Amino acid sequence: MVLVTSGPGATNAVTGLTDALLDSIPLVVICGQVATHLIGTDAFQEADTVGITRACTKHNWLVKDVADLPRVMHEAFQIATTGRPGPVVIDIPKDVQFKKGAYIGPASVKHRTYRVKSDPDLGQIVKAIELMAAAKKPLFYTGGGIVNSGPVASKLLRELAALTGFPVTSTLMGLGAFPASDPQWLGLVGMHGTYEANQAMHDCDLMICLGARFDDRVTGKIDLFSPGSKKIHLDVDPSQINKNVRVDVPIVADATKALKEMLHFWKTQKKQVDKAALKDWWKQIDLWRGKKSLDYKQSSTLIKPQYAIDRLYELTRGRNVYITTEVGQHQMWAAQRFKFEEPNRWMTSGGLGTMGYGLPAAVGVQMAHRDALVIDIAGEASVQMTMQEMSTAVQYDLPIKVFILNNEYMGMVRQWQQLLHGGRYSHSYSEALPDFVKLAEAYGGVGLRASTPDELDAKIIEMIDSPKPVLFDVRVDPKENCYPMIPSGKAHNEMILSDAMEEETVVSDEGKMLV
Amino acid sequence: MRAPTERHTIAVLVDNEAGVLARVVGLFSGRGYNIESLTVAEVDHAAHTSRVTVVTSGTPEVIEQIEAQLRRLVPVHSVVNWTTAAPGIEREMALVKVAGTGDKRAEAQRISAIFRAHIVDTTHNSFVFEITGAPEKIDNFVDLMRPLGLVDVSRTGVAAISRGPEAM
Ligand SMILES: Cc1ncc(C[n+]2csc(CCOP(=O)(O)OP(=O)(O)O)c2C)c(N)n1
Ligand SMILES: [Mg+2]
User: Fold this and answer.
1) In Å, how far is B83's CA from the nearest CA of chain A?
2) Nearest to A361 by CA among A399, A326, A313
3) pTM
4) Is A54:B22 a contact under the CB 8 Å cutoff?
5) Shortest CA distance to A166 belongs to which of A147, A187, A144, A141?
6) Which chain A residue has the Cα nearest residue B20?
7) pLDDT tens readout for residues A312-344
8) Rounded (5°) CA angle B57-B60-B65
9) What is the pLDDT of residues B81-90, one digit of tens each?
10) Contact A237 B72 (CB under 8 A)
11) Cα(B149) to centroid of ligand 1, in Å?
12) Which strands make up the sheet holding A138-142, listed edge to edge?
């Protein structure tokens, strides 16, 4: 739920709405609007809010008559939260806000057109499990749809994975649906995914896509994407089927319901996996794992960003932790290295890549989970986009922890300028960063700083133990790049790893255009 | 290799609520789809439903996406592709103004009779023809009128309906 004022309030909400649309996050935004008789006159703080937000909402309404308000409210919550969730906007003119009307309950509202197909077609389920039983090199490719479907979907995924012994990888949005401690977990897939996850995507003979959408950050160059595999695609949104990649067995359904049926048919039809083939497949995967693609060169003088995340993970282990992030290298390192065991523990801006997401997201999470340890893994550039929410955190006594991997660069931009623009760095270095410790104090929070690896642990513990909102300025190696990486225009089996990388230009001219 | 583009006529039955046309049109522009023609009018005043008929072009994959994306719009009741799903009848109406005198004027009138166009306005030196038919027929008629003094064309865009007793 978001409440914003007319005009600038509504336009400020556009980024959040687009973010929620791309990541399928239910959001009901209520906007003020000028009085109905002023609409269209360029009145003070007037904006065509339904016009502006039409392209970044699942649906929106301008309520011109108070009699429509209860129906619209109920429809809004239904549309935002069901099917593929998403953001909606209700624009309410000032005169309508002041009017009285009769309330009707949700039970008496039936939408004229909106319907959700959530029950799977059982014929498709049977086809899917037949492919699974025949597969020699299968792979679960899971996404945010599993998380959105609710915690039961994650349980069922775990059951199905245990029953089949198939390897599991996930998109950025799906992290936590499958436990990172499980031996079947291959890690993150895609542009900054692990070597084993991406090689398995490329070489598998059966891809079981559950609640993911073949996004370009996942597929790499689409014509070279997993050329030899049959593909099963489960999605609650029919428009995702065959959008980027043609699939063999589409299943349009809610993930929980579909997974339940898959398990049911697998068991009742007494399906068996091809054990011998699976053994060879795992042997191959273990070879890929042997590359240790997340390794990095440790330093005794500089804090490596990877090291900082590893220490944060170790020192917060076993606690009730929620992680949010900003956008950039720090986000990718967090996704690669922080081990999530449960869904809904990881909040990040995936589809839109919105710098500034993490701090306000942490405020929201802390509000919902008062006693939890809520940490925004941040970049020093991103976090300044919404830094003012520190004031909200202080006002509402929300002890969020902002763990800033301060490399003084818009690191992800610097990395791309290095790889794609021949090292012609432009506007990616921040020469006028604030003193984050003083900034924290100015807000009434706590400021911390660590500059060497040996002081890091104690400071992390101090951060965790602080009862207040904390800005922790972790001074990390400014030049570290995020690997592995599938350069634009390349296939999954053409990843670059950390040592191979340093000086050669590996991105083709065609790839540079793709970005 | 990209598949060749095809022309498709798609009917969309929508709730006639404020902004619904903008949603349909915005979907096409936002996702980079083509609109070759578009007609819209309320078809059931009691039920407040409107029918939008869009002629679009794209590869079969793109056409499949267009249909799926249209179905995703909240006020959409149903979507039918008259080119693939059900063989339909397509008609378009045009008003065509031709100015001229003498032989050219006589020739314009002669051709209009062949095309079964009606003359709905006439002055000593102009005609307005009303012509109905498939879009190609109207294209041909307009091409023939060009050297005969064509001055203005107004076309409705395509309306389409299925054959047989069923509704869309
Ligand atoms: C609002 C917004 N503007 C620009 C970008 C493009 N962008 C992606 S990452 C990045 C740099 C982020 O820098 P920082 O927060 O310091 O993170 P780092 O990569 O250094 O870890 C930029 C500018 C974006 N994603 N969002
Ligand atoms: Mg940075």
Assistant:
1) 20
2) A326
3) 0.95
4) yes
5) A141
6) A54
7) 999 999 999 999 999 999 999 999 999 999 999
8) 85
9) 999 887 789 9
10) yes
11) 60
12) A185-188, A168-170, A138-142, A206-210, A230-235, A249-252
Q: Nearest-CA neighbor of A60 among A28, A33, A13?
A: A28
CB-facing half-sphere around the CA of A113: CA atoms within 13 A: 22
Relative to beta strand B49-58, strand B6-15 is antiparallel
Task: Report how far residue B60's alpha carbon sits from residue A36's, in angstroms, rounded to the nearest whole number.
Answer: 44
Closest in A55, A112, A241 to B15, CB measured: A112
Determine contact: B139 vs chain A, CB below 8 A.
Answer: no
Tokens of B151: 């001055």
Helix locations, chain B, DSSP H: 20-30, 60-72, 102-114, 135-145
Q: Tell me, what's the pLDDT at A489?
A: 83
**Residue A403's beta-bridge partner residues?**
A377, A472
Own/partner pairs, A277-281, CB within 8 angstroms, 24+ separation: A277/A135, A277/A136, A277/A137, A278/A136, A278/A138, A278/A165, A278/A166, A280/A136, A281/A136, A281/A137, A281/A138, A281/A167
**Comparing C-alpha atoms, which of A230, A212, A128 is closest to residue A168?**
A212
pLDDT over 90 at A511, yes or no: no
What is the amino acid identity at position A362?
A
Beta strands in A367-408 (DSSP E): 373-379, 401-406
Q: Is A112 on the interface with B (CB under 8 A)?
A: yes
* Three-class SS state of A100: coil
Q: How far is A36 from chain B (nearest CA, A)?
A: 14
A410 Cβ below 6 A of ligand 1:
yes
Number of H helices, E strands in chain A: 21, 16
Q: Quote the percentage of chain A above a pLDDT of 70.
A: 97
Please indicate whether residue A330, judged by its CB atom, sits closer than 6 Å to ligand 1. yes
The span from the CA of A190 to the CA of A179, in Å, is: 18
State the residue for tokens 């191979």.
Answer: A500
Residues of B in contact with A55 (CB under 8 A): 26, 30
A388 touches chain B (CB under 8 A): no
How many angstroms separate the CA atoms of A323 and A206, rounded?
32
Cβ-based neighbour number of residue B97 at 10 Å: 16
- Token look-up 């609520």 returns B17
Distance from the alpha carbon of residue A476 to the mean position of ligand 2, in angstroms:
9
Whether residue A425 lies within 8 A of chain B, CB to CB, comes out as no
Helix (H) or strand (E) holding A262: helix A255-268
Cα separation, A258 vs A241, whole angstroms: 15
Backbone angles phi, psi at A345, to 5 degrees: -105, -5
